[in-house]
Amino acid sequence: MTEITSRIAPLLSIVVPLRNEVGNVGPLLADIEAACAPLGAFEVVCVDDGSSDGTAQALRDLAAT
Predict the structure, then answer these.
(1) What Cα–Cα distance (Å) separates residue 11 from each residue in 20, 30, 31, 38?
(2) How much is the average pLDDT of 3-28?
(3) Are the beta carbons of 25 and 59 closer than 8 angstroms?
(4) Whole-angstrom Cα distance, residue 12 to residue 40?
(5) What stretch of H or E contains 44?
(6) What is the pairing mode between strands 12-18 and 42-48?
């Protein structure tokens, strides 16, 4: 089984566009997680729209935790 087929299908998908939001991405994702966790399985898809301030690295760091 692949990783995708072995996971529970999300009930909710949230797409977040980000551009130069290095200081906001962590708190935003924490708030989304707190609000959505009681609902069941969910996913957050973050799209880095060409940031030049370290947003992409912040997303990688958050994904590792």
Answers:
(1) 29, 18, 18, 12
(2) 88
(3) yes
(4) 8
(5) strand 42-48
(6) parallel
